[in-house]
Design a protein that fits this description.
InterPro entries: NLR-like, TPR-like_helical_dom_sf. The chain has 163 residues and is mainly alpha-helical. Helix content is 66%, strand content 0%.
Length: 163
């Protein structure tokens, strides 16, 4: 266990949101390092604790679920990844709305995972829903206006594209 983890748990407590976020960051680091079993175990435990402490519809809980879906995807467990991704997308849509940047990020992640799982029809149906314009670089979806994301339903002059 890292010294920081011991310190933060001792100062804030095991169930403090900052402690939980620190653990979530560690689980994501395990995933990025290819330590998928450790990432999965930490992610499962965190989702359980966060659901109880923060609530199932808390954005930190949903984000941790999304990271667990990523780990499942890396493990080749595409069905479980897709199911979790769907819950995350539904939750962020309910809380933040369909066109919020975070919701659109989870939708795009769902598209990416569907493509990786060999399900282009799922990825295509997400795109055709009119909620997200797929681009290779997420920064390309930013409009010049602060906080505004370009979506497929925006007029071409806003998106900077012709029909």
């Amino acid at each position: 266990m890292a010294w920081f983890d011991i310190w933060i748990r001792g100062r804030l407590g095991k169930k403090h949101p900052d402690t939980l976020q620190s653990k979530a960051n560690l689980a994501l680091l395990h995933d990025k390092q290819g330590r998928y079993e450790e990432a999965q175990q930490a992610g499962l435990l965190l989702v359980e604790i966060m659901s109880r402490v923060l609530g199932e519809d808390h954005l930190d809980t949903l984000s941790t679920m999304g990271n667990l879906a990523l780990t499942y995807n890396h493990q080749g467990r595409c069905g479980e990844a897709e199911a979790l991704q769907k819950l995350v997308t539904q939750g962020t849509t309910r809380i933040l709305g369909e066109e919020h940047a975070q919701t659109l990020t989870w939708v795009r992640d769902g598209q990416d995972r569907a493509r990786q799982a060999g399900k282009p029809e799922v990825a295509g149906s997400l795109q055709e829903s009119g909620k997200l314009m797929v681009v290779s670089d997420p920064l390309e979806t930013r409009d010049q206006r602060p906080g505004k994301l370009m979506v497929a339903s925006d007029p071409p002059e806003i998106r900077g594209q012709e029909n």
